[in-house]
Model the fold of this input.
Amino acid sequence: MEDKEASNSKGTPTKKARRVCHYNVDWESRFVWLNKCDEDNTKGYCKLCKNSFTVAYDGLKAVTHHAEAKKHKECESAAAMSHRMKSFFTPKGSAQSEKVGIAELTEVYHSIKHHISYVAHDCSLKVLKQVINDSDIVKQMTGERTNCTALVNQVLFPYSMELVQEDLKNDVPFSVANDASNKDNRKNFPVAIQYFSPKSGICHKILDFYKDSFEDSTSIKERLCEVMDKSRLPWSRVTAYGADNASVNFGVNNSVFQKLKSEENNDIIDAHCNDHIFHNCAKNALKVMPVDVENIVMKVFAEFSCSAKKREDLKGVL
Done:
């Protein structure tokens, strides 16, 4: 019995010990998504799948098997179609960032100069990106309303005020004008100045465009002084004040002009609106005519409104 057991033990081959594999850093040159697992040097970590797998038994074969798995291929396809957030922005302070900023500012200035709205500006920039799709600068340009507003308020407007200050630095006299403009339920007040420059001739500049719900002479005068103080322009160099011929602006007793003349500069002259003067002149002239002007207008309208041929003949006469 003992001899039989001894013979069986001699005929059975000994079981070969399995060698444990460890992570090899050289694999990362072939598989860019592969990293070493910090907890265990017998495991690899996939940056795309966000999980670890063992390489202890199959080594490189385990890495290849993971690369051919369905889940890994799906993650690889998704990563190829997506972009990192930094790809949408240029590094701050870089030469590329400066070029993109100059291009955006130039486009915004062009739109403002030609009275193009922010919506149309954004639309034209999207078309430009499709047409010039090989330009890295155009690809990174943005033209949304928020960005355009920031460029206008924080870059273009301060620079334009610097140009005005440069033109008026040698005690150059100038005139001031403002008016009220109604937009829906809002009342806007543009403030403009006019002066002569040897380099540019007669210049018209906008100092401010503020909103105010009050339209009395005191409120207009106070806001006008605030704009002048913010622009660092003294009233002593103002030669004239221009506005429409409403009583709040050029009334005899309690008007904006009278307040400016008595409180700011006694030498200011009143620059009335020529359009209002012509209108008032025509209105008063029609009152003294011996014929009924309204009746004539109604008869002319009745004669020419019903015939296209008569209207063309009238245009030829006029």
